[in-house]
C-alpha cells in the first residue's frame, strides 16, 4: 500500500452526487486512496462508485451515518493507513481543506476537525442548524474543556489512536459528534481544529438532516452518557 | 376469594404455564427467557391458592385493598420486563451493527465489490 491517506465517504443514496465529489477529490488529492461506504442505499450508489473505480464497503443494511463511518474507519485501521479522513458524500466539503487536516495529524495530532465556524466566508446552513451547532459546540467545550468551535463537522482527519477509538464497538454510532468528542477527550487524545469551507449540500436530505428535535435530544443524552459513563478502558 | 373465581383464575394460570412449557419444548422460546414466565405463572397460582398471602402483602405495602396491590405488582413487573427488553435490544443492535460492518469488510477484502486499485 503506497497511499498514506484513506478518504472515507459514507454514502446513503448518494448516486447522483458521487461522481462530482469523487472527481473533485481525485483532482485535488490524486495520491490518496478513497473508499465509499454504501450504507444500505436503495439507489445504485455502490454501482456508481464501482464504475468510478472506487472500492466500495457495502453494508448489507442501513446502519446510519455513524455506523457507516465506523465501517470505513475499521477498513483504514486494518489496512494500516496513518491518516483516515472522513468526507461527506453530498458535496458539502471542499477537498482543498483536506491537506491542512492531514498535515496536522502528521504533525502529531490524533484527531483534527474541519471547522466551518473559523473558515471565512463559509456557507453556514439554516438558522436552526447554526443554533444546534452552537449549542453542541458550547456543550462540548464545557464538558471537554477543548477549544472546539464545530464538533458536528463531518470533515475529520484521524490518526491511528483516533481510528482505534472510533472503531470501538460501543463508540457512539448514531451521530458521532459532540458525544464522540467527549470520549476523545476522556481518552486523552490530542484534538485540533482547522478551518474548513462548507458548501450547501447537494441533497435535500443529507445524513445530518431530518428530525432535528429528536436529534437534539438524542445528542444531549448521548453527551451525558459519554460524560458520565464508565470509560476506564479508553486510556491505555 | 369465591370458589368460582379461584377455579377460573387457576385454569388461566395453568394454561399460561402449559403454553410456556410448550414454547420452550418446541424451541420457539429460548430456555433463558422462559424462567421469568414460569416464575410469573407459579406466583399467580400461589396467590390464587393462598389469598391470605396477598392480604398480608397488602398490609405490608400499606395499600387499601388487595386489588390495588395486585395491579401495582403487575405494572411494576411489566415495567421491569420492558427495561430488560430495552437492554437486550441495545445489545442486539450493537451486535447487528458489528456483524454488518464485519460482513462488508470481509466481502471487500475477499474480492467481491473490490476494484482493487483505484484507477
Short synopsis of the structure:
With 236 residues, chain A is α/β, with parallel strands linked by helices. Chain A has one domain: Spore Coat Polysaccharide Biosynthesis Protein SpsA, Chain A (Alpha-Beta Complex), CATH 3.90.550.10. Chain A is built from 8 helices and 7 strands; from the N terminus they run βαβαβαβαβαβααβα.
Q: Would you mind describing this structure in some detail?
A:
- The complex is a heterodimer of chains A (236) and B (119).
- With 236 residues, chain A is of the alpha/beta class.
- Chain A has helices spanning 15-28, 45-51, 65-79, 98-106, 127-144, 160-166, 178-186, 212-228; strands spanning 5-11, 33-39, 56-59, 83-86, 111-115, 156-158, 191-195.
- The longest helix of chain A has 18 residues, at 127-144.
- The relative contact order of chain A is 0.16.
- The model of chain A has no long low-confidence stretch (mean pLDDT 83).
- Chain B contains four helices and no strands.
- By secondary structure, chain B is mostly helical.
- The relative contact order of chain B is 0.06.
- The interface between A and B is medium-sized, with 25 and 18 residues.
Strands of chain A, total number: 7
Ends distance of chain B: 82 Å
Question: What's the arrangement of strands in the largest beta sheet of chain A?
Answer: 3-2-1-4-6-5-7
The most extensive interface between chains reads: A-B, 25 and 18 residues
Total tally of structural domains of chain A: 1
Number of self-contained structural domains of chain B: 2
Q: At CATH's second level, what is the architecture of chain A?
A: Alpha-Beta Complex
Q: Write down the Rg of chain B.
A: 24 Å
Distance between the ends of chain A: 28 Å
List low-pLDDT spans of chain A. none
What order do the SSEs of chain A take from the amino end to the carboxyl end, as H and E?
A: EHEHEHEHEHEHHEH
Fourth CATH level, the homologous superfamily of chain A:
Spore Coat Polysaccharide Biosynthesis Protein SpsA, Chain A
* Quaternary structure of the protein: heterodimer
Mean pLDDT over the full residue set of chain B: 85
Global shape of chain B:
elongated
Largest sheet, strands/sense/barrel of chain B:
none
Q: Roughly how much helix do the residues of chain A carry, as a percent range? A: 40-55%
